[in-house]
Each structure stands twice: as C-alpha cells, then as structure tokens.
Design a protein that fits this description.
Elements: H1 3-21, E1 25-26, H2 27-36, H3 47-56, E2 60-65, E3 74-79, H4 81-105
Helix pairs in contact: 1-3, 1-4
C-alpha cells in the first residue's frame, strides 16, 4: 500500500465518521454526501470496508431497516461514544495538520 493510499484510508475513516456523527445514515447516502463535498477518489466499493472497520472498532452502531418498496434491508449507522471520541481526536489532528500545511504552502507558487 502506497503512502497516498494509507493517507486516503485515514482521511476516509475520519470523513465517514464525521458524516455519521451528523445523524443516522446508510452506505449509499454516505457515498453521495462524500461526492457532493468533492471528496477525492471515492468508488462505491471503497466505503463499505471502512464502515465494517468502524463497526468492528465499536465506533458505530448499526441497525437493519426494511425497505419501503419491498427491496433488501438497509443497514443504518449511528456514531457511538467511542466513535465520537475518536472523531474529536481526528478533528484535532486534522486542524493541526491543516494549519501546518497551509503555513508551509503559503510560499509555494501554484503550477498552471
């Protein structure tokens, strides 16, 4: 796994946990919100391993809901207290990293 892939994995974990913290949601809705917010390199199959990992860590709780139109059940996710603690730690690290990168990049000219 490249450094870029590892970085994206960590960012995707934080982004998905952040979306779930805003209210109960399900996989496809999370994917759509990531795309709406221009999160890079998101594919349909990339979020489900993250959701499984967050569930195994105890960061989210899940419940199955019957479909209104007779389709398959849908798994809904909510954040747990443990997940909220991890998200707050992620947010603090992100703010520190973002500030540092912005400071460093201020003097770098954009390539056109």
């Amino acid at each position: 796994m490249s450094v870029h892939d590892q970085m994206m994995k960590g960012l995707l974990d934080g982004a998905i946990l952040g979306l779930i913290s805003q209210g109960e949601t399900y996989g496809y809705e999370i994917l759509e919100k990531l795309k709406e917010n221009e999160f890079p390199e998101i594919s349909d199959g990339s979020i489900y391993p993250v959701l499984l990992r967050l569930d195994k860590k105890g960061y989210v709780a899940t419940r199955m809901v019957k479909s209104d139109n007779g389709g398959p059940k849908r798994k809904y996710y909510t954040i747990t207290e443990l997940g909220m603690n991890d998200l707050m730690e992620f947010k603090k690290k992100w703010k520190d990293l973002n500030l540092g990168m912005n400071n460093l990049m201020r003097g770098v000219q954009d390539v056109e």
